[in-house]
Amino acid sequence: MIDYGTVTEPGTIRFERVLPGPIERVWAYLTDSDKRGKWLASGPMELRVGGPVALRFHNTDLSPTPEVVPDKYKKFEDEVNLTGRVTRCEPPRLLSHSWGGETEEASEVTFELTPRGDQVLLVLTHRRLGDRGAMLNVAGGWHTHLGILADCLNGKVPQPFWATFATMEGEYDKRLARG
């Protein structure tokens, strides 16, 4: 079974994943640049409200499986940079930051962690997504990145990013209501 993200209101998508704990381990994969770089993007993050966030994406390097980047995504093949500001930080349970800028128009991503025995429930909510194109990109991207996070935490070889992303973006195109 694939756990798809769900639209909770216009411009907002939410994902839930149960991951191997403990919570401090999952928190480290959200906040430590080296660990975050294995599944999402490396870069400094000051863990305080107002602290800067810099994310450097190297999606091609997230899996050792060689793959050809689809033409549609060639411009993202090398490093992609994104900035933001921490908007909430309650270690090791909650982290929110703006996504793609520091203005009020920027979208916002929130990670909530809840222990469940030796596992951790991760709830990721991405808000203020402007249009359907942004929703499809973010939905496919988070779905793929969260799968790679689960692979890393479970000691598995991560799935190839680009092939998975292209498949998931297409799947969300079918699943998300049109305009």
UniProtKB/TrEMBL annotation:
CDD domains per record: SRPBCC_CalC_Aha1-like_6 (cd08899)
Boundaries of every Activator of Hsp90 ATPase homologue 1/2-like C-terminal domain copy: 22-153
Stored InterPro entries: ASHA1/2-like_C, START-like_dom_sf
Pfam family, one: AHSA1
Family: Belongs to the AHA1 family.
Descriptive protein name: SRPBCC family protein
Organism: Microvirga alba
